[in-house]
């Protein structure tokens, strides 16, 4: 049905490496693969095997789980997108999350879950891109806040900034980006 590769860490592995929970769910215990160093595994390539036909309205969704945390969605593959390299942003151990894929209350090891699901019920298939955009926006916002803070005055319980502060920040931001092509790369993670 599917295979996975951990870039720079493994050879291709097929579905037999995963424990089958039921007809539509599989789990890979990362303890058997890398022990407690699961958080050093940053990427996963998942692909549909030749000859496997997934209905067009279905997807193979990939989830990750740190010890003591619920599963978190990472991305998916479909017939139209038969392979994907997914970034594994492991949740903090014990952190609350949106989905519990198994009945384990407090798992002792990290896990990767794969599930056949309705495509329409899944969030965006490119979670890593959304995360990068969110981090970029946060860093740009932080840069603006720090710039504004250096020009602030205090009026009672309010911070007061000059009216043209946004224009001044944006001009400075653009000038730095033109002078130093590496400047904007510093905002990306």
TrEMBL record:
Domain Hikeshi-like C-terminal intervals: 133-185
Protein name stated in the entry: Hikeshi-like domain-containing protein
Gene Ontology cellular component terms for the protein in this record: cytosol; nucleus
Cross-referenced PANTHER family: HIKESHI FAMILY MEMBER (PTHR12925), PROTEIN HIKESHI (PTHR12925:SF0)
Transmembrane segments: none
Xref: Pfam families: Hikeshi-like_C, Hikeshi-like_N
Family (UniProt): Belongs to the OPI10 family.
Domain Hikeshi-like N-terminal, chain residue ranges per copy: 18-122
InterPro entries: Hikeshi-like_C, Hikeshi-like_N, OPI10
GO-annotated biological processes: protein import into nucleus
GO MF annotation terms: nuclear import signal receptor activity
């Amino acid at each position: 049905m599917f295979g996975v590769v951990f870039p720079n860490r493994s050879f291709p592995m097929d579905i037999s490496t995963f424990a089958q929970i039921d007809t539509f769910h599989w789990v890979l215990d990362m303890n058997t693969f890398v022990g407690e160093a699961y958080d050093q595994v940053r990427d996963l390539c998942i692909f549909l095997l030749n000859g496997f036909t997934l209905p067009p309205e279905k997807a193979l969704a990939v989830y990750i789980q740190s010890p003591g945390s619920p599963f978190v969605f990472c991305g998916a593959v479909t017939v139209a997108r038969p392979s994907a390299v997914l970034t594994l942003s492991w949740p903090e151990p014990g952190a609350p999350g949106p989905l519990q894929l198994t009945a384990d209350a407090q798992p002792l090891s990290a896990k990767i879950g794969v599930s056949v699901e309705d495509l329409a019920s899944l969030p965006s298939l490119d979670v890593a891109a959304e995360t990068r955009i969110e981090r970029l926006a946060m860093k740009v916002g932080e840069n603006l806040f720090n710039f504004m803070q250096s020009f602030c005055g205090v009026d009672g319980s309010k911070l007061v900034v000059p009216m043209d502060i946004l224009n001044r920040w944006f001009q400075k931001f653009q000038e730095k980006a033109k002078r130093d092509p590496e400047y904007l790369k510093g905002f990306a993670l």
